[in-house]
Automatic annotation (TrEMBL):
Signal peptide as annotated in the record: none
Cofactor(s) required, per the database record: [4Fe-4S] cluster
Name of this protein: PqqA peptide cyclase
CDD domains: Radical_SAM (cd01335), SPASM_PqqE (cd21119)
Positions of [4Fe-4S] cluster binding: C15, C19, C22
Binding note for cofactor: Binds 1 [4Fe-4S] cluster. The cluster is coordinated with 3 cysteines and an exchangeable S-adenosyl-L-methionine.
Sorted UniProt keywords: 4Fe-4S, Iron, Iron-sulfur, Metal-binding, Oxidoreductase, PQQ biosynthesis, S-adenosyl-L-methionine
Pathway info: Cofactor biosynthesis; pyrroloquinoline quinone biosynthesis
Family: Belongs to the radical SAM superfamily. PqqE family.
Role summary: Catalyzes the cross-linking of a glutamate residue and a tyrosine residue in the PqqA protein as part of the biosynthesis of pyrroloquinoline quinone (PQQ).
Lineage per the UniProt record: Bacteria, Bacillati, Actinomycetota, Actinomycetes, Kitasatosporales
EC nos: 1.21.98.4
Reaction equation(s) it catalyzes: [PQQ precursor protein] + S-adenosyl-L-methionine = E-Y cross-linked-[PQQ precursor protein] + 5'-deoxyadenosine + L-methionine + H(+)
């Protein structure tokens, strides 16, 4: 069996931002259910024993955990490469220096757009100025900086200016990630899905920037899979390379798997090794034996693993079907209809977007 390479630690669902494309679940975990510092220490020790090398600290907003520095220090002592995935709201010079001293290796900051008006509107709170200041601080402290920009109907036409901002901030890497429709993003899909014309305008801009910035800034473009012929090899295959631990201790093959009707597995009841190797949840879609046609006899089955289980569930109600993004899927019409509907909307409409709330105020 493969060993997991990366662990995504969702430390909290609390967040100062309200992005409508958030992939956190609609039923956000309340702060009082979160794993304690001691529980995280055990999880990270078990993760290293299992072979994990990279730790991605995420949320919600991980800076809202008072023990973040302690968690990073513990991870560093275990030899893990640590990446902080943050909105940067709350990354004061003092906190940044503490994290640097604790051994944090890398910082990834989300930005919502290239200018304050739109960025703050998408984030649902004034934050653009704090984000750019924090990005400069990250570079001053000598960290590698990744900017992550989730693309959708409201900002994709500004991708040239987003790239210019990343250049100005001397980012080492930019991830232009077309929205993945899970959690709040799924809830807001009609208001977020870009039209084909928008994507066709953005793609040459990204290609040209990638060429121009070669050797200075890595430009990653996460493909908009609703508009692709084949699905993405989600998570590199179910239970194959990655695992996610959510704030309350459940372990998942990927963050949106919380929505699937499968038995839960928690670090509060089992070791991480047992969950990875033996839990029904991780075994359910591992490998290719579970596949239906057309995947079962398809030559791409070990390239994309039949696509995304969470997307198949969301679109068809059955996680064991071929991802409807695939043009060979018998359910492909569902995706084609959503894309056609997006093409018919002529202007972005903020009013159809539901902002992600704070935990405790949601379902
Ligand atoms: Fe991938 Fe299945 Fe489509 Fe083949 S039929 S390309 S394996 S999703
Ligand atoms: Fe869960 Fe793709 S996000 S399998």
């Amino acid at each position: 069996m493969d060993r997991p390479f990366g662990l995504l630690a969702e430390l909290t669902h609390a967040c100062p931002l309200h992005c409508p494309y958030c992939s956190n679940p609609l039923g956000l975990a309340h702060v009082r259910t979160e794993l304690t510092t001691r529980e995280w220490r055990r999880v990270l020790t078990e993760a290293t024993e299992l072979g994990v090398l990279q730790l991605h600290l995420s949320g919600g907003e991980p800076l809202l955990r008072r023990d973040l520095v302690e968690i990073v220090r513990g991870a560093d002592a275990l030899g893990l490469y640590t990446n902080l995935i943050t909105s940067a709201v709350g990354l004061s010079p003092r906190r940044a220096e503490q994290l640097r001293a604790a051994g944090l290796d890398h910082v990834q900051i989300s930005i919502q757009a290239d200018e304050p008006g739109l960025s703050d509107r998408i984030a649902g709170t004034p934050s653009f100025g704090r984000k750019t200041a924090a990005a400069r601080l990250v570079k001053e402290l000598g960290w590698p900086l990744t900017l992550n920009v989730v693309l959708h109907r409201h900002n994709i036409d500004r991708v040239d200016r987003v790239l210019a901002l990343a250049e100005e901030l001397a980012a080492d890497r930019i991830e232009l990630a077309n929205t993945q429709y899970y959690g709040w993003a799924w809830h807001n899909r009609a208001g977020l899905l870009p039209s084909r014309a928008q994507l066709e305008r953005a793609e040459p801009v990204v290609r040209a920037a990638r060429e121009r910035l070669k050797g200075r800034m890595e430009v990653i473009y996460v493909i908009p899979d609703y508009h692709s012929r084949y699905p993405k090899p989600c998570m590199g295959g179910w239970g194959r390379q990655q695992l996610t631990v959510v704030p309350g201790g459940d372990v998942l093959p990927c963050p949106p798997a919380h929505a699937l009707p499968l038995p839960r597995a928690s670090v509060r009841e089992h070791s991480l090794a047992w969950i990875w190797e033996h839990s029904p949840l991780f075994r359910r879609f591992r490998g290719t034996d579970w596949m239906p046609e057309p995947c079962r006899s398809c030559e791409r089955r070990e390239l994309d693993f039949g696509g995304c289980r969470c997307q198949a569930f969301q679109l068809t109600g059955d996680a064991a079907r071929t991802d409807p993004v695939c043009h060979l899927s018998p359910d492909h019409g569902i995706v084609a209809a959503a894309v056609r509907a997006a093409d018919e909307v002529t202007a972005p409409r903020d009013d159809v977007l539901v902002p992600r709330p704070h935990p405790g105020r949601s379902g």
